[in-house]
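note to self: the first set is below, dont mix up w the second
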Amino acid sequence: MTDMELTERDWQQQIKALAVIYHWKYYHTWTSIHSPRGFIDVVMVRGNRLIFAELKSAQGKLTAYQQEWIEALTATSAEVYVWRPSDFNVICEILR
């Protein structure tokens, strides 16, 4: 499967697998129906590191609500990312 064919759901499963391999605590809302609009897809914690990651397919676009969350979270000491399948190698380095 190429990066262009990878769905956001499949992409999320790959990130979850990396989190398990690298021993991160991992959270992804099962269903976002009761979550605030645009809240980040994934939250990970390991030691003193806190990561928020919005996962997008190769062509996925950020909504205005997602951009607002990213900007708010970026103002903190947490690490905040928008990850796409093309970022896979960089993500491996970040999580290692």
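second set (the one i keep forgetting abt)
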Amino acid sequence: MILFGTFAEEIVYRGFFQERISWFIKPSYAIVLVSIVFGMMHYSSGYIPIVVYDIGTIFIDSIIFGIIFNRTKNIFASWIGHILADLVGIVLLLFYI
């Protein structure tokens, strides 16, 4: 699931939205705009400080994925970064919480 889910997100958010929005505004603004939407898409209910922290870290990750995609123009490069970030998150959840 992690392979398919991350690939689908990268196709939609970087390959489609970021690429198309970059036609009309600066790529750096497109990265921030898409990252805001990407972070909000991951919203879940819960203890507000944890939810805000979670969305904030997802926003930062998304900016990194956006920069990778913008510089390489390669969806697979941002996908690998996304997979690695999710794997680190899973390991931290399993072994440290």
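remember for set 2: The chain has four helices and no strands.
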